[in-house]
User: Fold these one by one.
Assistant:
Number 1:
Amino acid sequence: MTALLPPRRTLADREDVLGAMLLGPALAYVILLVGVPFAFAIALGFSNATAGSLSFGWAGFHNYGAILGDPIFLRALRNSVVVTVGSQVLVVILATAAAQVFRATFRGKRFARFVLLLPWAVPVSLAAIAWTWIFDSTFSVINWTLKAAGLLHGWLYWLGDPALALFAIIIVQAWRIFPFATVIVLAGLSSIPQEIVEASIVDGAGFWRRLFRVELPLLLPVVAVAVLFGVVYTATDLGVVYILTGGGPANTTHVLPTLAFQRGILGADLGQGAAIAVFLLPFLIVVAIGMLRLAHRTEVGGAR
Amino acid sequence: MKRVALYAAALAFTVFAGFPFYWMLITSFKQNRDLYVGASDSSHIPWIFNDPPTLDHVKLLLGQTDFPRWVLNTLVVVVAVVVITVAVAVPAGYSLARLVGRWGERMGMGIFFTYLIPPTLLFVPFSRLISLLGLQDSLGALILIYPTMTIPFCTWLVMGFLRSVPWEIEEQAMIDGYSRLAVILKVAPRLIVPGILTVVVFSFTLVLQEFVYALTFISSVNKMTVSLGVPIALVRGDVYHWGALMAAALFTSIPLAIIYNAFIDRFIQGFTMGAVKG
Amino acid sequence: MDLSTRDGEFLVLLGSSGSGKTTLLRMIAGLEQPTSGEIHIGDQRVDRDVPPRARGIAMVFQSYALYPHRTVFQNIAFPLEASRTPRKQIEEKVRWAAEMFSISRYLDRYPRQLSGGERQRVALCRALVRDPKVFLLDEPLANLDAKLRNTARDDLKRFQRQIQTTTVYVTHDQVEAMGLGDRIVVMERGKVRQVGTPQEVYEDPVDTFVATFVGQPPMNLLDTGDPSLPPRTLTGFRPEHFLPQSVFGSGEDLRTFRFAVRRVEYLGSDRYVYGSVAGSGTPDATIIAKLPATIVLAIPEGETHEFAVPRRALRYFDPETGLRR
């Protein structure tokens, strides 16, 4: 098979052309169907477009003025922050603890791991509907269990009371995200070089000192990744709130995505919907910066 | 002593993660009179079968609701989206990993970041776009839009995967007389089949789990996907048929969970971008 | 195995990978448990329930295992913090150790900013501050480049002489072992083959494994077919003793060989001559002669020459067991 090939470079050799061709469709998709709509989303915030017609008229800051004076919007903004921060704090605590448990070997570990992953694997909407049933005012299993354990003396109207409902939302978000965070932390734990852990053992560090002085600091980049993704998944999530409370009772548990949906899609006011959704950007920018910092750290050979 | 604490903790986490699914399970098969007992009634234990289990809810789900139709719709969308994603993301990932050099890394990151732009921001302009294209209330809308979620992440997955596959094999092929194109067509697929598999699985799970776009674009009950139809449309009047609802949730969750378990390590590699040696 | 160290000695565990040398070291450290037997450190029995930190040992890993998120100072201070030493004492001790290894100016840097040799010294400092009864070193020179290794070896030996702490050192490099060890433990596949000073191990190997493992190039072994020996006995002699007959003075008791020379390698300070010896029971075995540059006699390839070995340099081995007769 050593026939001499023509020395000319054919098109099939031009790596740059090939590279561009292979990359083309993806770039086109991303630019046309993500980049452009993204820009359009921001532009819509300044328009008075509605879903009914294909009109587009400039409205300046009218939408923003309207929503910033709207107590429902301000509440939704506050809720978004509360739910995101609250659930992620829970997630970090749960995930680091669960990772410690699941790095050990014990009987039934495979089954436990399978169950642990269920909240993350199941579609958001189905998990949400299951939790709606669990939190149901009349039939709630949680109420029954708490009462049977002697911990509940009144009654908890989970989804009917604004504060309780928000708390319920936080629980559901933490519940569905912590398995994902746990797996990431577990992977991080196993990537700590064995010899460093052994060195700390030989150096005389007990379990807790090892955990807090050696392992957790080395885990920081990994935990950060988990938190960043968790923030994105929680702040931008519509399913849990929409199905659990629909934003109620009386618009008290709206978060930015659900309010944007209600006003923009159901209410057909595209301009206002877009303006509301734009307030998600701060969350995303913080995450993007966080990711870039992390990537830079590992490139420069950060902690290795 | 430490052993006991370990098992207790493992049990606690497992129960916390799993009890909703257990609840789903028994709700699906409980008779209505065993199910709809007020929780304030302490004499009735909701966690067990007080009456023998029944298949009534399952029968209702499969026979008298649109659930089978939704499953079909979902499958159609899944197949289409998977095909599009593999066809677009895999070559793109290959190109970024092998062919484009230094700014390939930057572009790869850029593409990955578009994954972070959420549906709940884009659905507003998309609704206008879908109306423009006349795709409202159709599966075509989903088939068009879902790849915007799968392509960025899967391109990144393929990139990462290729970085761990030695390129000497391809270079050897080029020395042996294949052009770059021939190498791509002949040699590369075999090397990255596991990566392609991960792309397929990820796209599959993402389509099954997606709710926001489905909610935005689909209004007719017979066009809904499972993830949309179950929580929204399994309602008769004002009444939620919880038994059937939970059965539907269960049937959808189990296969997904099995798949997730098998592929979780690969996904994590993609998510952590090499911050962790997967 | 039954092994004991002498106080303050530098003991080297020598063997190839899989010989068990690292496992033995880790058992002494307490990172692995023996399936049977006892380990004593000082007058304390440690193998059953005594954790590493209570054994009075300090260990330097092959990768140095420095804590990447802590400065050099904090790395060295870590074991002292673990034993709850007062702040002021920690400061003094760390600075003292850093002085000893001349790394005081790096105290505020991070491990990733240091070179391999500097990191190794930090690891040694960290071990030093524990005032251990035993130092355990796992191939600490393996990651350094060749030039650095010689000076590092010298530094290590002088340092150990100075502090006079018993040291157990693992390596697969027999040159290192010979240079560093007060005594060498030659190990193979989990068993101790020989324990002795470098001289004993080199000149009086106890079996064919030790004879061929120690020494570069390895000892020549062949069946000379000598009728005065039991049949198939292996006769061994080191390449540096295998020289052209004309080099030896008269009056030396020699064993002569007809050496068919295949190839000569000129290596500057030595010449290696590869060939085979006629009339032996193993005619295909490659025999090597190591001629110092001071012997200028020409050795053309392809010819047969008269070579000889002083009888006192011959060693005899049983062909079945490999043991020395």
Number 2:
Amino acid sequence: MVVIGGALVVGATVAVLGACVLLVLLVVAVRARRQLRQRRDEMLLSPLRPPLITVAAGEDDDGTAVHTLRRAAGDSRTVLDRNIVGLLTKIRGVPAEQLVGVLEKHGAVHAAARELTSRSTVRRARAAQVLGLARAGDTVPLLVRALDDEAVEVRNSAAYALGLIGDAAAAGPVLSAIGHPERGLPAATAAETLQSMGVGISEVLRAGLHDAHPRTRMVAAHLSGERSFTRGLPDLRHLLDHDADVTVRETCAAAIGRLGRAEDVEVLARHTGQDEPLSLRRACTTALGELGDPAAVPALAGLLVDPDPRLAELAATALLGLGPRGREALVAHEDGPAVRSARLMASLQRASA
Amino acid sequence: MSWEGFVSGLRSAVVWVMDAASVPVLVYFVLINTSLLVLVVLAYLEFRAQERRRATALSWQGAGLAPGVSLLVPAYNEEAGIVTAVKSFLTLRYPRHEVVVIDDGSTDQTFARLEEAFDLVPLPRELPQEIPVRARVLGVFVPRDGRTRLLVVRKENSGKTEALNLGVNAANEPLVAMLDGDSILEPDGLLHVTRPFADDPTRMVATGGAIRPVNGSRVVSGRIVRVDMPQTWLPRIQLVEYLRAFLLGRTGWSRLGGLILISGAFGLFRRDVVVEVGGLEPGTIGEDFELVMRIHKRLRDEGRDYRIEFVPEPVSWTEVPVTAKVLRNQRRRWHRGLWETLWAYRSMLFRPRYGRIGWLALPYYWLFELAAPLLELFGIVIVPLALLLGVVNVSFAVLFLVLAYGYAVLVTLSAMVVDEWAFHKHDRWRAISQTIVASVLENIGYRQATAWWRLEGWWASLRGRRHVWGVMTRTGFDEDPA
């Protein structure tokens, strides 16, 4: 028994120390590989860098730089294409079109469409990005399918690409991908994607306000406000009144503040009562100010004596922005800290404007 | 009693103790190493995930759903670095953030420096009392330019916890980031750490970012311009500890859905949730740990769907102790905080309602974080005694020691591989050799000393002694390596 125990300890010790040595070698190898790859890429790219910069800067008047880039071959081409993809995230207009032309000539766009089904997550994600940066509109169905990919990196990249292409037909799948139980699309990516699509997404957003998933409703509400889609107003009001998620309700309040009408004063004021969550009351108070309708004055004036001093100050700030009627409502509370603080902040901001 | 009789009695006692303890200690040894192995495997998975994320990263500048952030900076006698720190926080890359400095009754020129640098004017603002704060507020100030999003709140001295609670009350944005006054944030740090909130805005309630020791790095105007290794071994060993804690520990627990600790040096929380749970508990030692536990308990008790996540990208840099005295005080405090929080939330253990928190994370912290120094000290006393008395085989004992500490080094090296692959913050080759040496040196003296200090903290708590915070001597950040 003792011999077995001893042998076990010896074996385990050798294994652990051996693993330590392997890990040290791995650390060294990882760094060496990275540095070697950087040097190699630098070397391969160096002759192509001047024409690349010329094209990116929009100074290739006679087309010779583009011609040089199109002729690149072998490993140089691979490194060049990678750099072009990086540049395409930063430049627009004719230089971007010329660089996309280079990618197309190299077959990179065609290859990207194929690589959307690669086994490698990184390849699939990069392929989606290339298709977006190349504004390959004919690949929208492929990218929509990639929204259901098992890897979040691919889903993110597909949504990013769809945003760059800007085809409103993809808005529905993007919005509904947010609430997918296992393969959800991150809300931030979805919001950015939808933001860059045209006005054709208003009906999709309206439908999104009825989605079962609170994240989807929140994105739809946020974008309805950002894009001033007034057709969603009835649904926003309904969600503000009834949604189970307070974050969704706050987002609806902000959206109504941006695009609401006179009748929304009552809708927002209803949720400034003390029986509502404080964060929602504050959001509604700010939204009443955003709405900019003098009809909000009585509701806001009533909040100047609210037990929450922050809410009172938000109400005072909102009243300051509502013209003579709003300022008049402040007179009765002139000595209160909420009004004095709001006035001072407004005067400091005016002075610096 | 004769000397021989004493030795014989002692030998019998040692044999009895070793017989009694051998099975539990062996089980403990197997369990702790298995759990570390699990963390290594999780680190490997994370390393692959990081590689994928890095290779497919899309630029995100916080457009759209990025929630506003209030950076809460409690300051007590921080005249040396407060202006630089605030300037660096104000210039972080983020679309909507404000800085809230809470001057906790400083007796030096902290406020005067801020007043001069930002041309502060008093604001007659009454702060909400959503979280009750006992200390009197002495004044609220804002920059005269009306644009700089800085709010300075002066209060009577009552400690960091109350300062942070007051900061939460004063904050205007939906997220609050709790920082140390000497923290240095990565320029994109806020973008990294808020991303989970933007991705899952209805469920995410807190995130923590990875923290690195800044000692030895070159810091200019509150920004790190060159990352380097600390110049002495004590902070180098702590760097190894940080790598392991953040790249294996927090990452692993976050992956398992059992993250219960977000470091006080940098944590981001939904403001309404912090208010809802009553803010930080005044008088506690491990207030950061306690807050996260309270959030878990409250939200699980209410059956709410929520997430707390760790962001492995380096977000914040902090100065670690360079002297044994300061380190001792820090470790005593940490372990005392750990014990007091674990004890306070003992009712969550093995309760189905608390899921992985109750079944995995808390038992792990009880067994392998809280009890570890006790077992380690037991070994340190009993093994040499047994060797001296000839109770155990010398070569076997040495081999076992090499195995145990070799395993510790293996775990550290795994974290190093993850770091090198995913983040490679240290460019110099020398950093690799120094980190490897530090991971070995950690086992010679350092571990034993910190085990003792941790037990001191635990013992002080059990005896009900009042905690004294002590002073963290900072060398400060200037144009030279810290």
Number 3:
Amino acid sequence: MSVLRISDLTIDYRLGQGSVRAVDHVSLEIEAGEAVGIVGESGCGKTTLGLSVPLLLPANASVSDGHIVLNGESLIGRSEEEMNHLRWKSVAFVFQGAMNALNPVHRIDKQILEAIQTHEPETSKDDAYARVLELIELVGISPSRAKSYPHEFSGGMRQRAMIAMSLACRPSLLIADEPTTALDVISQAQILALLGELRSQENLSLVMISHDLSAIKKVCDRIVVMYAGVIVESGPTDTVLRRKNGVVTAAHPYTRALMGAHPDLSGERILAPGLAGNPPDLSKPITGCRFAARCPEVMEICRTQTPPTVTITPGHSVTCHLSVRSAS
Amino acid sequence: MSMKDMNPTNDTVLSVSDLVVRFESGGRQSKKKIVRAVDGVSFEIVRGEIVALVGESGCGKSTIAMAVMRLIKPTSGQIISDGLDLATIHGRALQRARRRIQMIFQDPFGSLDPRQTVMEAVSEPLTIHKVGNSAGERKELVFEALRMAQLNPPERLSENFPHELSGGQRQRVAIASAMVLSPALVVADEPVSMLDVSARAGILRLMMDLRDRLGVSYLFITHDLATAWVVADRIAVVYLGRIVETGPSEVLVKNPAHPYTQALLNASQDGDTTISAAASVLKGEAPSAAAVPTGCRFHPRCPKYVELGKPESCRSEDPRLRVIKKGEIARRDHSAACHFTDEVK
């Protein structure tokens, strides 16, 4: 059964006179226990998509179309009070820069305890505290450090504490927005390993939003590539991100450009050309493919016609005129 | 071909020897601790060379950069550039010397003054160092620096404020204001880690182009071994205030000798590694620089130490950096600070 089903979701931001369509008819399904990574540059809509699930969008955002179904229940149009019952228990969120989201004047154990007591008032204080210590241990922090203040922790430990807190009410779905971005490589690898372990131990479904493809490759089963508010490619991580002896199976030129942007230690010692320019202005309607203006393989048809989504192999689909051509 | 191969001899831009930076931590007199942020570091950079310092957060790599810039005063050691010891000079002499060494910071959103136009930001170093005889001449120098940083057309972009630019463009402005004084050395502290992946390659390519065209050298500070490998001629891996391994980038990445370098490499591989490889990564945190372990400072986290049955020497003797493989010139030796380097493949 799917934990989360997003269909045709469209989100607009009101800005001054006009509006910006940050997410444009996006559909996505997450199975129980599955880990899905969402990648793309800043401003491509990945954070907006993530925030839409717990309905935590900023005040100037509105859902113009589509449905979000979490554990069989439709979320769009729910009141703030109803959502408060679902947040933390059904879906928890680890924010970008979460290391700085801890309250500096409270001890770590107290902050996690508060989360449990707020959302499960029926739990006794002793039981709740026992769970706090369990959670702290679960994320690899010694329970003897439970009474520390956030400033006594390193960045990696603060991120672990935030993950412990997000699991306080045993959610079925965890959405982590750039969980490793501000950390150094060793802490990154530790946090990614932790997320992988939690997934199997706690039977957690995971949505990981990141611009770091190698992080997604290490944790996620499936990858979704977003560009300018739409999904341009999605498929099994092993297939989409395969890079062996120079052979790349990623089908969309944007995915390939993202893959080339970071040097691969097992590949050739060269600096890839990168991707010039910026994503398009989403306050204006776009004709043709959204990526056409930056695409190194652009064709005439790309500038005039919206590309269709084609399935290349089961589970691997791409929205690009090039793939239509090679399929036929 | 880069400059490094053409000039193997006396072209040293920077020579750091036995650099030590200690801080006294706050608190009551009885509780004060000495933090050994940089604990005896030596390296040199020649004209047109890119040297990368790689390590975890808190390893002291940024403190080394700040000491080289003389933004902090080293406790001891020498920082020789252009015949002067930057560690001891001050006042006018220091200000003159600073002209030759410029810096690019990590955060292009924070390092530019939001109320200064690009023209004001890039011309400020010229004013400080009294370069150019007239406003017109200075303006020309700014335009040239902007063109060099590929901010075209400079006439229009120079009037922009930082908020009107993308992250990549802002970092190009930072590069232009570093290059406007034609420095011999640029210290770049994580110059791309705050940028979008798509903008990173462009900035790194620009830095390498400027090296090839102008012969400028870089001290490149990063935690990303893969980027260091592609960009730098030589890499020095820093752990708890010491260089634990150094060598030509290709040699160091293909044949890492120190167990710490191997762990860093494991953590940065993205080839076909999955969660199991990621999980085999070092446990725990680097110890605090206020309590450096005895013997080899890496032994409490070292997988090799456990594998070899916890040898006494790792706990009692501080390993010195020694040559494992001689380079064609001394500067390009491959060296590591590990008692069991030979056993390490």
Number 4:
Amino acid sequence: MKDIVRILIAPLVWLASFSAVYGLHGLICGHGIDGTVFGVVSLPRLLLVGAYGLSILIQVGLVWALHSARLGSPSPFVRFVSRATGWVGLVSAVWALLPTVTSTYCL
Amino acid sequence: MNTLQRHRKLTAIWASEPGVRGLFSTVNHTDLGRMFLAVSFFFFLVGGVLAMLIRAQLATPQSAFAGPEIYNQIFTMHGTIMMFLFAIPTFEGLAMYLLPKLLGTRDLAFPRLSAYGFWCYVFGGAMMLVSMVLGIAPDGGWFMYPPLTGPLYSPGINTDFWLIGITFVEISAIAAAVEITVSILKYRAPGMSLDKMPIFAWYALVTSLMVLTGFPPLILGSILLELERAFGLPFFQAEFGGDSLLWQHLFWLFGHPEVYIIFLPAAGVISTILPVMCRTTLLGYGWIVASATGLAFLSFGIWVHHMFTTGIPHMGLAFFSAASTLVAVPTGVQLFAWIGTMWKGRPSLQMPMLHLLGFFFTFVIGGLTGVMVAVVPFDWQAHDTAFVTAHLHYVLFGGFVFPIMAGLYYWMPHVSGRKRFFRLGELAFALVFIGFHVTFMAMHWVGLMGQRRRISTYLPEDGWTTINLISSIGSFVLAIGIALVIVDLVLHAFAARRSRRDPWKAGTLEWAMMTPPPAYNFASLPHVNSRQPLSDDPDLTIRLARGEGYLPEPENGWRESLTVEISTGKPDFHVIYPTNTRLPIVMAAVTGVFFVSLLLKFYWTVPLAVVGVTILAWRWAWSLGHKADLPLRAIGHGFELPNATQVGQSPSWWGSVFLLTANATFFGSLLFGFAFLWTVAPSWPPPVWFSASLLELVLGLSGAGVGVVAIRQSARANAQGRDARVSLGVSFAGALAMAAAALGIVLRAPTPTEHAYGATLLVLGSYALFHALLGALMMAFLYARVVRGYTSVRRHAEFPVVTLWIDYLAGMSLLVLAVAHLPGLLG
């Protein structure tokens, strides 16, 4: 079962983080969270970009773990597939949550 | 024992009852697979006839063929039947028929569950058909958006048929998904490690996991909408704290993965057949597995792309637009792997290959228009037009029907043992292909000209007349093509001459047996060393029939098989299956009484049905296991295995894991709904919050703690040969304490008809209460098993199963308590 988990973990975490960032965005807009930090940085933007960065960091950690000898699978096939799905998770996190940086948030 | 004696003995053990009686008591996967496929193709024909009625209506402007009321029922039932009663059950039927054969085993993990799922599907589907015959079929579109489908705008019984009937049918999907998942992970031939699994099994595994996590949001949505319609709980009514957009979220959390739930098994068929048709092996097996997995997850992250026109902020739109474009990547990887397979092989233009080419041409167009509608500005223009209808038909017909037709022609010699001899199939394919493209290419065009979906008629001055007429003519050509396919298949089944085994020279294990297949599949189970075991060893079939594989000698008249360790394929447990029984059909019928009672609002029969299902489920589980320890079973080749009732992670444990996965998704969707309403819905905060109760909190918390600890103590006591009953009694008390805490929420929730907050608490409390009572029932069952001698130090498999459910109950109860009591505690 560990090998199945290795294959599923990165896209599963992507799905959770994607949904969480969308949920955070909903909370910010639904509850009218606003304001600035240090007088210059918009709080909603900071929260969203922070969550985006955290999602990427987690995915980088997973890719690293799946490539490591200690946590990667002993089976060459599972190692290949799990690394491929690991990269799916990382690329998906970078691309699908990029709007946190580029788009207006509550318009 | 010689080969013939072995065949006769195994047939006597595994065969269904003779004649029609056998249909009602069979639990054999070959029978049930064929029955599933027969019924699903019947529904395909019904859905097809409805499509013809739609095209007849739209062929001319201001048509008087059907009035708007009937037309609404026709298009709703067309979509509903094709999605829920044809596509998903076809996957289930195909997987049930094929998987044990492809995996080199004798049956699926839970044969009675297959049968129960099948009968739920038949009874649920029959409910839908009855509604149509009576002229009271659902009429709110296949995605049933409230407020149109709410009690105010759809007061009749039509919508209830959909909500209740489809939920009934979905039991079948969940049952099949649990069955297929456990079967693929555990019920394989020895030696079949993950890298040697047939590619169809990978696709079926991914699809089944998607069903387990994709269907629960829709089941939840259906329950909430039915509660609103029947009892006035305002989940989707904005003036009472509800929000109709909640339905769209829940529906599309199911609905978008549904597209891939339909496509992925078809892709499995393609990946299996294409290399055989090209006389080569599949290119990029590992890439395909990774792509299918990635695609499955991505498909869950794009549900909002069906809601681009609902006023969601730009950033939300951009998230889902970006994720939607990503889907093209793993899909493209698979397409290029298939093209590469054709490139490296020598394609042979036989019937299955024709349909595969039809798939390529059609599905690529559907995929490209999919990328178009993933782009928000384009979607805003095309949304709810015939363009989208055309797009989805290119994806679903191209991505499912063509591959399934290829599969039909490919595996018909396996099912019938006969070889096709007429050339009708080629003509049928030509008509289907031309008819389809004429119909739906025209529909793209008229959609871009502004024709909306679901309209019952239009005016001559709209300028859509000629295109609609062309589309309708195309659809009738398509229908003639489908009719010819049926004629071809009927001729094949009854008039064709006997075929030799493995007519395509395929290398997968389903061909390593007689055709039509015997009830037991393999006289002895193979050892697998590669993905193409039959190509590697052409004599494998004969050697297995001679008993040179595993489990060659039947023992005690048992239906036997074995399981393997998930990753390595090393044999781990010996399994004894249940035999033919009418229990599944009876239980499905009693389950049907429950749903029909809700539909007709005969609420006094609901508890009777619940009691009936409980008694039958008790009997179902009771018939498993033994009163004496079983010795290790020698399976051949020097292996001796313990029986599955004498291990920690038995098949039932694995089944519970995946059933709880679906259950947890349901619960997660409910929490999401609560958070969504709280955050987004108007008319919040509610007029009154739930008042926290220290007594209920203490009761719930202590019940959860005691339940979890005591069930483990009982397992430990059993393992040490001590009396487990006292600990079981304590755990039972813990479950009752959790039930009491949940009952407090149910009884004290703010008036549920006045605000969605109270309604949601009522559902959360009821969910926790149901599980607490279920946990108590399981504990009572285990207690009775201990008393009657079904457990021992070695026979301990039932303890981990109940522990799993009690752990879930405890964790879920704590979350429900927190959600209900925290607002009151925080003031």
